[in-house]
Amino acid sequence: MSRYTATIAWARGDAPFTDHRYPRAHRWRFDGGLDIPASSSPQVVPPPMSDPAAVDPEEAFVASLSSCHMLWFLSIAAQRGFVVDAYTDAAEGVMAKNGAGKLAMTVVTLRPRTVFAGQRRPSEAQLQALHQRAHEQCFIASSVLTDVRCEPELA
User: Fold this and answer.
1) Which domains does the chain have, with CATH numbers?
2) Are 53 and 64 in contact (CB under 8 A)?
C-alpha cells in the first residue's frame, strides 16, 4: 500500500464570510515541497472571489487523468521498443448532471498527440492498442466513475 499526501491551506483574512463573497484562493502543498496556487473554478464562482490564474479542482482532475495515462503510455511504448520524442495532450473535461441529477465531471476526453523517432513506429492499430493498455493500467482512471475517453492522433 502506498500513501500520498497533500496539504490544502486557506485563510479568510479580513473578508466577510457569511455573504459568500469570501476569497476561494488557497494553496496546495505537496510532500516534495511544491506549492501551487489553487482556487475554485471561475466558471463556478466568479472573480474576484475565485482566481482564474490558479489551478482549480476540475482542471486538476482532468490533468491527473491525462498525466497518469501519459506516464503509462510512455512506459508501455518503451517496453514495446517504440521511441517517443514528444507527447502532448489537449485533454478536456465536461461538467454536467449525472444520472442522479448532480453536477459531476461526466466525461474526460484525452487527445494525445505523440511524436515517435527511429525506424520502428507504431501502426494506427498498434497506437490504439498502446493507448488502450495505458488506459487499463492508469490508477486514476480506475479510481473514478467518469467516462474517460482517448482519441490519440499520430503527429
Assistant:
1) 1-55 (no CATH), 57-154 (3.30.300.20)
2) no
